[in-house]
């Protein structure tokens, strides 16, 4: 509201004083992100990415002959705040699209608001429930938790592991991925012999890991989770000298996870990740190489910080939205929605996106790379 009032006031003063009114952005895009709070390691790079890309686009003339105005609210990871901010973006700020929902919880809180208002929404969270079942105005950029489970189980099957233990976070992301993994694990001939959980504020997972370690039949461990939890699991796993292979989720696919867990403790961990984490290792023939390298270099120059998978989700959401605006030919929410749904072969940091009325993600398992931590760095293992 303050920005809108200031814009109107400046225009009025310019007219009264006989000056030409300054040009202001005509296409408003909203975002509600977890820039602070427990999910800030996700939301902060998302916000920085969106602001950087908007500045870059506006410097080149914007889109459809207009500049983009980005309005960002920090929901701190609170679903109630996310719902409130989504309502404000639509009713007060009059945005034509919303990006955000850093977490599954905030995304699920935003969905009823955008669906009721018929405003296109691109979520940056992982749970499959965000787009399954398909909702007319809701899309997302991260691979789903079910896809992550499938990628991990593919690798486990390849390694000959048939009996595993699970230790999952009870937060929205962890609970959702845990549920999805259990749904499909049998398809890969794998049996879950231990199924432990931990809370988002727990500081020690030694008891749960001790239970898993005590089952001699277990061949590997899977930890669906994000945030601080998986780093604590990893440290406790090393402290207990557990020799079983440890798999983490794509929810911790960033350099910050290695720093939090400690390179020594994280050594050998595998997880499904994006091309962005291994940009320099991609061959020139890889269609994603130029996109991920360009984003990585721009982000690190602009922020002085390492690029992350999560900022990449914001990058892809913005690219999808701008591509849709160009194809729609107008900043109309319904037209933008239709254009997003018809996105075809758009190369992003998460993969090559082709959406349809039945698929509001547009990615398959080939978009994931199985990665391993070696000497404190990410390596491609397939």
TrEMBL record:
One of its GO terms (biological process) is amino acid transport. The keyword Transport applies. Residues 27-362 form the Leucine-binding protein domain. Coiled coil: none annotated. It comes from the Bacteria. Residues 1-25 form the signal peptide. InterPro entries: BCAA_transport, Leu-bd, Leu_Ile_Val-bd, Peripla_BP_I. Keywords: Amino-acid transport, Signal, Transport. The keyword Signal applies. Belongs to the leucine-binding protein family. This is ABC transporter substrate-binding protein. It comes from Rhizobium setariae.
């Amino acid at each position: 509201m303050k920005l809108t009032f200031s814009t109107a006031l400046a225009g009025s003063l310019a007219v009264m004083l006989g000056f030409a009114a300054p040009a202001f952005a005509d296409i408003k895009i909203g975002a509600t992100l977890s820039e602070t709070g427990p999910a800030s390691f996700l939301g902060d790079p998302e916000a920085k990415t969106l602001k950087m890309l908007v500045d870059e686009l506006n410097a080149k003339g914007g889109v459809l002959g207009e500049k983009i105005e980005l309005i960002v609210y920090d929901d701190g990871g609170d679903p109630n705040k996310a719902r409130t901010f989504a309502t404000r973006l639509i009713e007060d700020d009059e945005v034509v699209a919303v990006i955000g929902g850093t977490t599954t919880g905030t995304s699920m809180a935003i969905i009823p608001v955008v669906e009721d208002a018929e405003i296109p929404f691109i979520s940056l969270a992982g749970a499959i429930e965000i787009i399954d079942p398909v909702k007319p105005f809701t899309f997302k950029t991260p691979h789903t938790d079910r896809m992550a489970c499938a990628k991990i189980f593919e690798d486990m099957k390849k390694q000959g592991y048939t009996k595993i233990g699970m230790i999952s976070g009870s937060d929205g992301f962890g609970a959702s991925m845990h549920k999805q993994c259990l749904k499909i694990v049998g398809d890969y001939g794998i049996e879950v012999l231990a199924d432990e959980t931990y809370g988002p504020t727990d500081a020690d997972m030694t008891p749960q890991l001790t239970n898993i370690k005590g089952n001699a039949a277990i061949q590997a461990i899977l930890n669906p989770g994000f945030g601080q939890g998986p780093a604590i699991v990893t440290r406790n796993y090393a402290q207990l000298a557990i020799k079983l292979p440890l798999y983490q989720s794509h929810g911790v696919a960033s350099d910050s996870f290695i720093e939090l867990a400690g390179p020594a403790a994280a050594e050998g961990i595998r997880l499904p990740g994006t091309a962005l984490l291994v940009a320099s290792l991609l061959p020139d023939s890889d269609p994603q190489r130029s996109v991920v390298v360009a984003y990585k270099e721009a982000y690190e120059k602009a922020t002085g910080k390492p690029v992350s998978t999560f900022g990449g989700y914001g990058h892809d959401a913005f690219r999808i939205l701008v591509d849709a605006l160009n194809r729609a030919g107008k900043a109309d929410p319904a037209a933008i929605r239709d254009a997003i749904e018809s996105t075809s072969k758009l190369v992003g940091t998460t993969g090559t996106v082709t959406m349809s009325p039945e698929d509001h993600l547009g990615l398959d398992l080939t978009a994931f790379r199985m990665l391993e931590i070696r000497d404190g760095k990410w390596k491609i293992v397939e």
